Amino acid sequence: MIFSSASWVRQKFQSWSIHHFPKYYFTAPEDQNLISLLESCTRTSEICQVHGSMVKTGLVNVPFTLSKLLASSIQDIDYAASIFNHIPNPNLFMFNTMLRGYSISHHPRQAFVVFNGLRAQQMMLDQFSFISTLKACSRELAHETGQGIHGVVVRSGHGLFTNVKNALLHFYFVCGRIGDAHQLFDEIPQKIDVVSWNTLLNGYIQMSQPTMATCLFREMCRKGLKFSTTTITSILCAVSDLGNLDGGLPLHGHCVKMGFCSDLNVATALIAMYANAGFIDLGRKIFYQVPEKDVVLWNCLIDGYARNGQLQDSLALLQLMKHEQVKPNSSTLVGLISACAAAGASGVGLCIGNYVEEEQMALDAVLGTALVDMYCKCGFLEKAIDVFGRMEIKDVKSWTAMISGYGVHGQAENAIRIFHRMEEEGCRPSEVTFLAVLNACSHGGMMVEGISFLEKMVREYGFSPKVEHYGCMIDLLGRAGLLEEAHNLIKSLPIEGDTTGWRALLAACRVYGNVNLGERVKRILLEIFDERHPTDSILLSSTYAIAGRLPDYTRRMQEIKEEKMMKEAGCSAIEMNE
Fold first, then answer.
1. For the chain, is the Cβ count within 10 Å smaller at the N or the C terminus?
2. pLDDT tens digits, the chain, 578 residues: what are they?
């Protein structure tokens, strides 16, 4: 109950407010008492009790105490807003508090309303007003609003503040405006602030431009700037993305020289770099050199072994982690589970599923989705259905994984049922969701339903179908024997087709022995796409055989031999229980 959880607040407040503040005037020690009391509140109900007592004693009329109350309330932004909206003349600190609160809340766009209200009051803004509002712009990807705020920054002279410049740099990178970010960086007169360099460095990495990040790092070296652990972590991520061990080894040596290897973030980045370059054993040496290991470091090494195909080593590390009494989280297992799904390693996948149950780990959207995907790809559909049913929170990826799983197992009707259930529960499907359900319709030969979903995708959800979606429809029409319709569809696509759709049509021609269309498709693959794939020739020769044109079949097979066209050999893997 609220009263039981906050009775201590009332007692503590009354013990000093009545005696010390008969005239509602604070002296420094009493100010500190109130601040300490508000800081000790961990729930909105406790802050509410303090608020009520302040109303009774009149302390809400004192700007200082009211500001502190507002600052303590921003974790519950709705409650903070209810306080702010009843303040007759809020000061700059109060406006900035609300800007900061909204910038970290689930409603960052409301910061723009507060910022406009602040400007309407014609108050002199400070750097904190801009920093919080720019953070909200970054979260909302509000490029035009952010550019407008940049203009206000320049006109007000706040562009001289390094923190404001860094907030602008981050904003432009998040919005994908690399040119604007670099132009802003070039305008900084004395580039001695490492934070600005780090912001630019991280921006290039976030925009998947590791080469630019490494060039920027070399410029930092030429200028003799002192690196922080943040700088080293960022450049290690860039080198890791490039998979360039030659650039990583000198960085590792620098980390050893500067004593950075004991920093958990740096150690994690080093392990990830070696893992991406295929030298995971070197990463393991770094792991053992770190005295205090956190769960992120364990996760990095486990994921590194999984991505290098060493699933048994990942599983052994998971057991070692349990022995060391380090509690795993969902991120510990997701990479390993995804590797099992990709490799079809059902034995390791089942071990991980059992581990999740033994540790009673919560099936959040990330872990649950990974398990559903892995079980479906490894052939354990019933287990996937069980995990999906036990997931309390499902996001669009969770639903998509289950729809795809049903489709892969030939249960198109169940895939469609799950799609409709997803809509009923208020989850908006993505383009990938539609691709999964169209694939299910294709494999199940449900032509009418497939056409219906393509129409729904465009008309109800406003998605523009991509070549993959049209590829499913071509395959669906081909499987139904509507070869000319499939041909007309692929010719009339609003986007340029690819070889997958044409090859699906050629495969359908083989099934139905349609030689004329098959020859046309083969000609298109050769002339337009310059594709001389052995599969195309084999499909066309099989079409001749099915149509009863054995001389043409013999001729085509002879051409394949003369052109020395070799189809890539397939391979199978069998898991052995040791």
1. C
2. 344 444 544 444 444 444 433 344 444 455 567 777 887 888 888 888 888 888 887 888 888 888 989 999 998 999 999 999 999 999 999 999 999 999 999 999 999 999 999 999 989 999 999 999 999 999 999 999 999 999 999 999 998 888 999 999 999 999 989 889 988 988 877 666 788 888 889 888 888 889 999 998 988 888 888 888 999 999 999 999 888 788 889 889 989 988 888 899 999 999 999 999 999 999 999 999 998 899 999 999 999 999 898 988 988 998 898 889 888 888 888 888 988 888 778 888 898 899 888 888 889 999 999 999 999 999 999 999 999 999 989 999 999 999 999 999 999 999 999 999 999 999 999 999 999 999 999 888 898 999 899 999 999 999 988 888 888 888 888 888 888 888 888 877 766 556 777 888 888 888 888 888 888 888 888 777 666 677 778 888 888 888 888 787 777 777 666 665 556 666 666 666 55
Question: Is 85 in a helix, a strand, or coil?
Answer: coil
- End-to-end CA distance of the chain: give it in Å, rounded: 56
Residue that has been written with the tokens 């796409």 in this structure:
529
Query: 3-class DSSP state for residue 45?
Result: helix
- Cβ-Cβ contacts under 8 Å for 479 (sequence gap 6 or more): 442, 445, 508, 511
For 173, residues 6+ apart whose C-beta sits below 8 A from its C-beta are: 181, 199, 200, 202, 203, 204, 206, 207
What sign does the dihedral 348-354-355-361 (CA atoms) show? positive
How remote is the C-alpha of 483 from its chain's centroid?
40
Cα-Cα-Cα-Cα dihedral sign, residues 528, 532, 533, 538:
positive
Residues 99, 132 contacting (CB under 8 angstroms): yes
Instruction: For residue 391, give the nearest of 423, 424, 425 by alpha carbon.
Output: 425
